[in-house]
Backbone:
């Protein structure tokens, strides 16, 4: 039996936007499963449906063995959620927040306390657990959010962008905590992210989602292998040249990715480069810039989504996060 | 309903931990009594009419205390609605909605939290009114039953307003919207009622409207008891009628709030 299984799960919002389009997932028990995609790909909508916050328009899904529509309360009892937004109450201490959430799940006080103490230790929050959450740093708040989703010993944990807006150091620390939690609690974790390294570092398997659809599924290694060589990005002076080059390099599966650049595939570019540049030279074409990408999740993404995850996306997210934190601190 | 108790405890903790909020909430009824109650000192300015206007109350504060208690419930009840919107904007609502608790318990915890605040505020209001010079004068045969009726009335009007403003807040996402609505309904609720002035001082049209205002019902119950102590049959009937109106209206608003919360609340 799968821990999470979806059949043609679809969500069309009232404004007509098809956020999730016939997604089929099969997630094994005890797996860390990554959902990778650019902003607006449908990751959060998928998570919201699987955690019963949204009703699917079509299709169905089972989480921890329960139907997300017909048995939504049972699903809620068995899943933990760490949403993108911060949810702890700033006017209460970390401990009070955790105990309150335990009561939502009818966990008896003694058991809740025992479980919380264990979790707090796991994410190194022991020194500040009795302080008001309003005094926490961004990283501490994220750690608290992480364990708030675990107080009732769920069988499936959903992490929606768990390290959004955190600095690199804090991020790798969070990864460590997530790995430890998975091992100690032996829990299924579903992780959404648009940080490639995050999904690469954490997940056993992943699906790349784009525009509401699953583009490809596999282990990080499988996906990297499936690329079958290097991806080379050639940038030209103008659009006309790029167009021309796309035509000439058809045998290398050339395709336009931006106005000025095209990507081609080559089993080993260090060998092929002379030939390729030679072909271009015949038509009086000379790329301004050549980028060679060794197989990585970046290239996988580039290959399957047709564009890379823009860097500034992460930056604007952390800016958004900072703004939110500032608003919260007021 | 496993969420109701922990969520209500949270409301109460947040209240007494926030010193400004706590003290302001206690000072407000005191200002009402000290400033408004003294500004209209009708027993001094128009002694020949005061018995008629104040319906037999020995002074204006005694006349008006039921109205001030009700107005206090009105103002504090607004915060129940406001807090729902805060929870939505700051994030906790997302966590509550994802938990296996009844959605109505999220909203009803605000109602209960505000009601507790209202009861404490009104208790202090009465205490202060008794202590200040030329303040509240209780009738000779004021007894425990009177206290009980006043307490239940305060409880009902507290639940009524907290529930009303919570129901309004269920689908609202912006602070400004609920502030606007609150400001809009405050004045008619307060002044188209018998809370601050007796009916015979009002223009007939507003005096007639005021009899359908829950603010009037609660003010009349408290006032009739606090002025007269031992009630005549007619006075009992007045108290009883107004009490039934208040009880039924409160129940109605609570039921509507619960239904709306179950169906409509979302992040």
Residues:
């Amino acid at each position: 039996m799968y821990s999470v299984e979806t059949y043609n799960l679809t969500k069309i919002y009232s404004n007509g936007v098809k956020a999730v389009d016939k997604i089929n997932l099969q997630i094994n028990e005890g797996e860390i499963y990554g959902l990778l995609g650019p902003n607006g790909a449908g990751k959060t909508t998928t998570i919201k449906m699987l955690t019963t916050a949204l009703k699917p328009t079509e299709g169905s899904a089972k989480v921890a063995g329960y139907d997300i529509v017909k048995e939504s309360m049972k699903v809620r009892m068995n899943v933990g959620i760490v949403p993108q937004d911060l949810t702890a109450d700033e006017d209460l201490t970390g401990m009070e927040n955790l105990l309150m959430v335990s009561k939502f799940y009818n966990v008896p006080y003694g058991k809740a306390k025992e479980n919380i103490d264990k979790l707090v230790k796991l994410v190194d929050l022991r020194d500040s657990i009795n302080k008001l959450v309003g005094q926490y740093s961004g990283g501490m708040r994220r750690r608290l959010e992480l364990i708030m989703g675990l107080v009732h010993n769920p069988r499936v944990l959903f992490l929606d962008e768990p390290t959004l807006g955190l600095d690199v150091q804090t991020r790798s620390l969070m990864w460590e905590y997530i790995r430890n939690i998975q091992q100690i609690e032996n829990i299924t974790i579903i992780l959404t992210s648009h940080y490639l390294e995050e999904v690469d570092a954490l997940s056993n398997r992943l699906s790349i989602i784009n525009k509401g659809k699953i583009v490809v599924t596999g282990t990080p290694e499988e996906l990297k292998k499936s690329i079958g060589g290097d991806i080379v990005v050639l940038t030209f002076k103008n659009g006309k040249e790029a167009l021309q080059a796309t035509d000439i390099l058809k045998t290398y599966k050339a395709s336009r990715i931006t106005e000025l650049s095209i990507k081609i595939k080559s089993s080993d570019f260090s060998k092929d480069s002379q030939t390729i540049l030679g072909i271009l030279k015949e038509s009086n074409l000379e790329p301004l810039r050549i980028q060679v990408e060794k197989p990585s999740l970046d290239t996988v993404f580039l290959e399957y989504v047709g564009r890379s995850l823009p860097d500034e996306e992460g930056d604007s997210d952390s800016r958004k996060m900072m703004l939110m934190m500032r608003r919260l601190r007021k | 309903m496993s969420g109701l108790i922990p969520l209500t405890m949270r409301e109460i903790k947040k209240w007494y931990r926030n010193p400004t909020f706590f003290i302001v909430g206690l000072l407000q009824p005191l200002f009402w009594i000290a400033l408004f109650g003294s500004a209209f000192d009708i027993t001094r300015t128009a002694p020949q009419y005061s018995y008629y206007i104040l319906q037999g109350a020995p002074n204006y504060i005694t006349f008006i205390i039921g109205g001030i208690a009700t107005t206090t419930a009105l103002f504090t009840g607004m915060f129940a609605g406001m807090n729902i919107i805060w929870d939505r904007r700051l994030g906790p609502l997302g966590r509550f909605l994802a938990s296996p608790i009844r959605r109505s318990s999220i909203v009803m915890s605000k109602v209960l939290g505000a009601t507790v605040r209202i009861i404490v505020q009104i208790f202090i209001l009465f205490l202060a009114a008794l202590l200040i010079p030329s303040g509240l004068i209780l009738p000779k045969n004021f007894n425990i039953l009177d206290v009980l009726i006043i307490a239940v009335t305060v409880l009902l009007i507290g639940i009524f307003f907290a529930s009303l403003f919570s129901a309004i807040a269920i689908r609202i996402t912006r602070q400004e919207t609920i502030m606007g609505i609150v400001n809009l309904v405050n004045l008619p609720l307060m002044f188209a009622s018998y809370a601050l002035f007796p009916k015979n001082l009002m223009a007939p049209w507003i005096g007639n409207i005021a009899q359908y205002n829950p603010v009037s019902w609660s003010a009349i119950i408290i006032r009739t008891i606090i002025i007269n102590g031992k009630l005549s049959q007619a006075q009992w009937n007045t108290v009883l009628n107004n009490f039934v109106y208040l009880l039924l209206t409160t129940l109605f608003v609570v039921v509507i709030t619960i239904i709306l919360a179950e169906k409509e609340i979302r992040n």
